[in-house]
Amino acid sequence: MFSLLFRTATRFLFPLMIVFSIFVLFRGHNAPGGGFIGGLVGAAGFALYIIAFGTEQARTAMRFSRRLYMAIGLTLMLGSGLVSLLAGDAFMTTQWYSIQIPVLGKLGTPAIFDTGVYLAVIGVTMIILMSLAED
Amino acid sequence: MDIVLAITIGVLVAAGIYMIQRRSFVKLILGIAMLGHAVNLMIFTLGRVTRGVPPIIHGEHGLDVGAADPLPQALILTAIVIGFGVQAFAIILIKRVYSVFQTDNIDTLVNTDFE
Amino acid sequence: MLFLPILIPFAAGILGIFFWYKPNLQRWTTLIGMVALLIVSVMIFNTVWADGIQVAQGGSWVAPIGISLVIDLLSAILLLTAAILGTAVAVYSFGAIGDQRAAYGYFPLLCFLLMGICGAFITGDMFNLYVWFEVMLISSFVLLALGGERNQLEGALKYMTINLIASMIFLIGLGILYSVVGTLNMADIAKSLPDVQNQGMVLPMAMLFMTAFGIKAAMFPLYFWLPASYHTPPPVISAIFAGLLTKVGIYTLTRAFTLMFILHVEFTHTLLLVMSGFTMFFGVLGAVAQNEIRRILSFHSISQIGYMMMGLGLYSVMGLAGAIIYMVHHSLVKANLFLISGVIEHMTGTDSLKKIGGYYKNYPFLAILFALSAFALAGIPPLSGFWAKFAVVRAGLELESLWIVGVALVVGLLTTFSMTKIWAKGFWKPTPEKYAHLVDASARGPVSMIAPIIGLVVITLAMGIFFEPIYTVAEVAAEQLLDPSAYISAVNPQDFTALGGHE
């Protein structure tokens, strides 16, 4: 499906959606939002890209393979749980560090876990969408 | 509020079961999705929409008595996420089944039941 | 350490995704993961045997707020069984799963399936159990449909529909449970269920759980999905499904009806007993009528599930011990028979009894392996199946439930008959002339496929010969099950109202 209007709009909307998805991701600790919702918003951005430019273009826009997103996401989730073992607590005990990151706030294992969820959701959703879009 | 939710759940369950019993794959998946929504709403309703106390924060730092119990909502969120994954897989599966069998009629799928 | 049975398969699965395009690396990471799981399971079993029930709290939250992992002896035994089977299947997959199927992600899925199974065995939280169920189900859906042959897709659709409905019934049960009891921690539920205000809801709730778990375990009126789907995927996948997935259903039934829902034993357990009779009988009748090895084995699974439920329904130490032994024995033997049918299919390309024959003449060694497993399944002394059946039947006699004992014995005869059918038609009769071209007497299964079969046969033999120590272990596990207070005090859920929670 070729539509100049839609393609031009996608060029502007796509980066906005990705930025917004990251905003939703980091907002999620104390307010509505989080890794799953953020990942879905990000995946919606890529879905827009698929509809406008086709799956091949969307693949290049993702830069890495979808499985890599998934694998890194899962690794981050596992890693965020393992950090607490190093600190001597039970698995998945939340660890907070006093380092302040500008804009984002405190660093802690929940943020790592949510980032993992975010990446994994993008990866899985894109695998599903692309296998539906390819015919 | 409870009565409205109860009626909605009833309608969703009825519609879901009706859809599951149709012969078409697509309706089957839609029916399963509706049942899933009905179940989520039911957990939400059973978790007491207004009454109850948050189970984790207590004492002076706790929320007001009017706040709803957050646990059912966490349960529903998990159930929604799982339902999302399962239904996405189901849609891919019926697409594959359709492309292999060239039919949308469940009654024709009897190969694995009889010889 | 209690988290390791979940973490190891998870890590192995992630590694598998990283090595997506390198099937050989995936094979090795899976195998290493499974062996590590086996070692950890042995260690956990030793700890539980020596020190009693082990508990870990996820995220350092106190029970019942956090998710507890609880391993009692039953969980430890099943964990060990799952790890043994996982290792056997990982080895077998070296020869059985070609690069083509591996390209769809067979190995990571196998790891995630094992993660779900282990998680379901060790969790102490009802909602967490639901999550593990779903992890297991999603992996099993994809495994079942993997490769996308006609029958597979069809079987996967049926399997998926019925299991999704089971999950929903489970979820409805969970919703009611939470609204009535106000907690989802199993030990806390067991503690507070007798005192809840709304006693009228307890029995309906129990029935919802029985239906949901019954569908997953393939209980009598709800078993039709199993023979429609289990014979469709490659034999190695059937093996792990038949060995472990239905056992998870039986395990959850056992857990729910020995720990939590024990307020109406006369009703619930009698119902289980009646259902077990029907399950056994119709399962074996189905098996007698079939003509393909894997279809026979699928129907057999149902009738054997009946024996395990019978042990649970009798609700005595000996009955439960018998059921536990039955679970272990059936996991190993049934999986092994599926693996053997895989070797037969690998060599001839079919497992229809009408087309094959002459295996005893051509492959005596394979025939002996099959005979040992089949006799163990049918319950010929002194193999493991005999002792398992003996314990269950003896428990029935002690409680004077003569009718169920009668059913069990008749079903035992029919089981022997249908096993003899595979033996006579597949191994003894000469190869049908029409299909003689299918048999190549020099064809041999790869070592990686034969080795796990030999290993499982040795374990089966050992279970039969050294039955006494095994029965002692099972008896202790059954005593633990019949006395929930030990489980509750090990988890030690804090009193909710004292913390200022639910009214």
Blueprint (SSEs and pairs):
The complex is a heterotrimer of chains A (135), B (115) and C (503).
Chain A: H1 4-27, H2 35-53, H3 55-62, H4 66-86, E1 96-101, E2 105-108, H5 109-133
Antiparallel strand pairs in A: 1-2
Chain B: H1 2-20, H2 25-46, H3 70-101
Helix pairs in contact in B: 1-2, 2-3
Chain C: H1 4-18, H2 23-51, E1 54-57, E2 68-71, H3 73-96, H4 99-102, H5 106-122, H6 126-145, H7 150-181, H8 186-192, H9 202-217, H10 225-229, H11 235-260, H12 265-289, H13 293-314, H14 317-348, H15 359-362, H16 364-378, H17 384-398, H18 402-428, H19 447-465, H20 467-482, H21 484-491, H22 496-499
Antiparallel strand pairs in C: 1-2
Helix pairs in contact in C: 1-2, 1-5, 2-3, 2-5, 3-5, 3-11, 3-14, 3-19, 5-6, 6-7, 6-11, 7-9, 8-21, 9-11, 11-13, 11-14, 12-13, 12-18, 13-14, 13-17, 13-18, 14-16, 14-17, 14-19, 14-20, 16-18, 16-19, 17-18, 17-19
Task: Give an overview of the whole structure.
The complex is a heterotrimer of chains A (135), B (115) and C (503). Chain A has one domain. Chain A has helices at 4-27, 35-53, 55-62, 66-86, 109-133, and strands at residues 96-101, 105-108. In chain A, helix 2 packs parallel to helix 5. A two-stranded antiparallel sheet of chain A has the order 1-2. In chain A, strand 1 (96-101) and strand 2 form a beta hairpin. Chain A has five helices and two strands. Chain A has 135 residues and is mainly alpha-helical. Helix content of chain A is 72%, strand content 7%. With 115 residues, chain B is an all-alpha fold. Chain B is built from three helices and no strands. Chain B has helices at 2-20, 25-46, 70-101. In chain B, helix 1 runs antiparallel to helix 2 (25-46) and helix 2 runs antiparallel to helix 3. The longest helix of chain B is centred in the last third of the chain and has 32 residues, at 70-101. The radius of gyration of chain B is 20 Å and the shape is elongated. Chain C is mainly α and 503 residues long. Chain C has a domain at 264-484. Helices cover 76% and strands 2% of the residues of chain C. Chain C has helices spanning 4-18, 23-51, 73-96, 99-102, 106-122, 126-145, 150-181, 186-192, 202-217, 225-229, 235-260, 265-289, 293-314, 317-348, 359-362, 364-378, 384-398, 402-428, 447-465, 467-482, 484-491, 496-499, and strands at 54-57, 68-71. In chain C, helix 3 (73-96) packs antiparallel against helix 5, helix 6 runs antiparallel to helix 11 and helix 16 runs antiparallel to helix 18 (402-428). The longest helix of chain C is centred in the N-terminal third of the chain and has 32 residues, at 150-181. The two termini of chain C are 36 Å apart.
